[in-house]
Input
Amino acid sequence: MKFLQQGLVLAVLSASFTAMAAPMPNSIIVEDKAVVPILKTEVIRRVAGQEPKRSVDATIFEVTNQGKDIIAREIHLEDNQAQFSEKQLSIPVIQKGGVIVPTSKIELNTTIKQEGKVLSQTKKIDAEGVEFKSGQAPIHRTLKLDQKKNLGQNTQTSHAVLTENGITTKDIVVLHEDE
Output
């Protein structure tokens, strides 16, 4: 029992915490952009004794800088649907830009070391800001990001939650494993 307590005390004491106060920009300008769907391909694979697998590949163009910059994005989705989607390609969407004024940002970096060797690292970011668009009410946006790196197992987990006016708009978890 004593060895476990000593190990626990050593782990807590060897963990180093740093809080950073990086300067925030006065404002972040979000440009207007158009999202144009170009191509959508659906394939359903059926194997006897298994659930069907539907894969959807789509290509969209994001047009910014008044048509001077075009970025092609490939999107790939997989699910267990047995039928093709009734949805057609959507019409192009113009997303109006605006200005985001950051109000706060807290970043916490944690490193756990044992005998001089880094075991894991975590990074937490809590950021808030207000977005202003012409003709619309201000939108209060928040970002909460948790990243964890386990260096012993070469894995990394990221969890991001985005909210607008207190309502969660995106909740994303990404797992990375190095082989």
Observations:
- Confidence is low (pLDDT under 50) at residues 8-19.
- The chain has two domains: 31-95, 98-177.
